[in-house]
Task: inverse folding
């Protein structure tokens, strides 16, 4: 490749990656409405694969669109919150540093309504492993710590009539290949052979404190 045809410093912009659509439902299979979410409460569902957790949050105030970029310098435009108040957001709960994620036994990464011990502000997502912190109101951009990129966003479609939420894509730096490589054995015990199956149709939303026996606060 000659200098004249060299790639620009910014590679092609990151685009949403579509996955099968999944309606957010509660444990009884009823749709979860955006207005039924408790503000500043950490919810979890799984998407786009059965073993990949996502944090769902109602931030209690609108989250504006945000320009971000991945560690490979692909820029992207996070579209902001959804719902009637544009306050509902969702992000892959796999830490962008070393892939820490919430399980049923323990979670080292979670949303903190009030400032974590080492937090730089209230209402951030904090990973206790090496204290990466992400701002869920700004596309999960990195506020501090070693994480090299924002948490990957999960895009939600909001039906204004029914007030339901449907996951349909990711946007940003996906880490699913690394995640499945790193945790292959662990996931086969935790989730079984379905771990990498795509989630289709619907996905169950739980509060993190009910989903996980031990949410570590640091
Ligand atoms: S894995 Fe989250 S900060 Fe290192």
Result:
């Amino acid at each position: 490749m000659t200098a004249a045809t060299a790639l620009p410093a910014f590679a092609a912009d990151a685009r949403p990656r579509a996955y099968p659509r999944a309606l957010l439902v509660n444990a009884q299979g009823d749709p979860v409405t955006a207005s039924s979410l408790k503000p500043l409460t950490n919810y979890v569902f799984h998407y786009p694969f059965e073993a990949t957790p996502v944090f769902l949050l109602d931030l209690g105030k609108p989250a504006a669109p945000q320009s971000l970029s991945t560690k490979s310098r692909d820029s992207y435009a996070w579209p902001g919150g959804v719902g009637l108040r544009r306050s509902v957001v969702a992000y892959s709960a796999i830490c962008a540093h070393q892939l820490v994620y919430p399980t049923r036994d323990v979670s080292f990464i979670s949303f903190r309504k009030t400032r974590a011990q080492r937090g730089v502000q209230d209402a951030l997502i904090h990973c206790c492993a090496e204290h990466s912190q992400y701002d869920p109101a700004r596309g999960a951009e990195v506020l501090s710590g070693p994480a090299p990129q924002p948490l990957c966003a999960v895009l939600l479609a909001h039906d204004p009539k029914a007030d339901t939420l449907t996951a349909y894509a990711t946007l940003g730096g996906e880490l699913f290949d690394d995640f499945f490589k790193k945790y292959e054995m662990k996931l086969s015990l935790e989730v079984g052979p379905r771990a990498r199956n795509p989630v289709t149709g619907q996905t169950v939303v739980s509060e993190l404190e009910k989903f996980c026996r031990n949410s570590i606060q640091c």
In short: Residues 22-211 form a domain with the Rieske Iron-sulfur Protein fold (CATH 2.102.10.10). The mean pLDDT is 92. The longest strand covers residues 17-25. The chain is about 10% helix and 30% strand.
